[in-house]
Write a structure and sequence with these properties.
Blueprint: E1 2-6, E2 10-11, E3 16-17, E4 22-25, H1 27-33, E5 39-41, E6 66-75, E7 87-95, H2 109-113, H3 130-137, H4 142-153, H5 160-163, H6 166-192
Antiparallel strand pairs: 1-4, 1-5, 2-3, 6-7
Helix pairs in contact: 4-6
Length: 205
């Protein structure tokens, strides 16, 4: 048997309790009534026992969650007869913690301070003057020349001085590529003949 102290007026078919009444009930019934709202646990002297009103909610790893609200409500439990005390349950609203970041902070602060390498910026003709574009295309390969000229042609106001020079700029790019291949072939041939190497062994008779 357990003793409870009534906190608010409660009446039933065969009982009537007033606030402050101390009632002795079987353990299971006392537990149902001592919800902190209708009744509370009473000590031997009839003084209400101290209980935590709001429940403590924790995660599976033991972290406390912030309780935004907690109320007790009646509900119909299956298999409970009409003359039994009503069942109650907590309805708790909690604040969920922020999700953990995908990339945890590095343990080394210096590593975090190191800037990430910048990606190569794509040359946009819309951001440059005609002479700057021509200077850039003078060293670009054929594929890059085509890309830049196509980007210029797709603008709202393409510059005719660039579009009219398309064939010339592409021809220059092909000539540079052919010249580079020819120089590489000549260099390879020179090396194969034993020339053009400053690190060869010198033999003396």
């Amino acid at each position: 048997m357990r003793r409870i102290k009534v906190l608010e007026a409660i009446a039933g078919d065969d009982f009537s309790w007033s606030p402050g009444d101390v009632v002795e009930l079987p353990d299971d019934e006392a537990t149902q009534w001592a919800d902190g709202h209708r009744a509370d646990w009473a000590e031997a002297e009839g003084v209400a026992a101290s209980v935590e009103q709001a429940p403590r909610v924790v995660t599976v790893d033991g972290r406390d969650l912030e309780v935004a609200s907690a109320v007790v409500e009646d509900f119909d439990a299956p298999g409970v007869e009409e003359d039994q005390p009503p069942h109650v349950r907590w309805v708790v609203t909690v604040e969920l913690p922020d999700p953990e970041p995908d990339d945890p902070a590095p343990a080394d602060p210096e590593a975090a301070a190191e800037p990430k390498p910048e990606e190569d910026e794509v040359f946009d003709p819309a951001d440059h003057k005609v002479d700057e574009i021509l200077a850039y295309l003078a060293t670009a390969d054929e594929e890059e020349v085509l890309r830049v000229l196509d980007a210029e042609a797709a603008t709202k106001k393409p510059r005719s001085s660039l579009l009219n020079a398309r064939d010339t700029l592409l021809a220059d790019a092909r000539e540079r590529a052919a010249g580079g291949e020819q120089q590489a072939a000549e260099k390879a041939a020179e090396v194969s003949r034993g020339g053009g190497r400053g690190d060869g062994l010198e033999t003396r008779g």
